[in-house]
Design a protein that fits this description.
With 139 residues, the protein is α+β, with helices and mostly antiparallel strands. It is built from one helix and eleven strands; from the N terminus they run αβββββββββββ. 22% of the residues lie in helices and 34% in strands. Strand 2 (57-62) and strand 3 (65-73) form a beta hairpin. The relative contact order is 0.15. The structure holds FE2/S2 (inorganic) cluster (FES).
Length: 139
């Protein structure tokens, strides 16, 4: 192997190593910027009806964001984004009061998502729900 061939080999080898390192470094950024799994076709999530107890809230991920599902009255379900419309904290369900509380600034929302008190400027974002046998189709 002459000097020219060794030089070519070295350049190609260093290029391959550099490309590999660039790929390793870029992968976390790619994963961070990639859309979150949506949980189903067209972002629709299927939740077994039995997971939503009467008077209880069921929190889940919807299109990469926290959401909540509850049975407002027997057989009537509602789903909302669980992100407070004030500054984006995650709401909690207070079953004894039948309302949502935002722990950050004490914003309160009714079981239909409307603002009851506190600084939230808008109701919770509603997500459509359909009953399909023993399942609830959200989205
Ligand atoms: S972020 Fe919810 S009340 Fe402020």
């Amino acid at each position: 192997m002459d000097v020219s061939s060794r030089r070519k080999f070295l350049i190609i080898s260093l290029g391959a190593v550099g490309a590999s390192l660039a790929g390793v470094a870029a992968y976390p950024l790619f994963r961070y910027l990639s859309p979150q799994p949506t949980g189903g076709e067209k972002g629709r999530v299927t939740i077994p009806r039995a997971q939503v107890g009467a008077g209880q809230a069921h929190f889940f991920q919807f299109r990469g964001h926290p959401a909540v599902l509850l049975e407002r009255t027997p057989g009537v379900f509602a789903a909302f984004s669980a992100i407070c419309t004030h500054l984006g904290c995650i709401i909690r369900w207070l079953p004894e009061k039948g309302e949502f509380l935002c722990p950050c600034h004490a914003g309160r929302f009714a079981s239909d998502g409307k603002v009851l008190a506190g600084p939230p400027p808008r109701p919770l974002q509603v997500i459509p729900v359909a009953v399909a046998g023993d399942n609830l189709l959200v989205g």
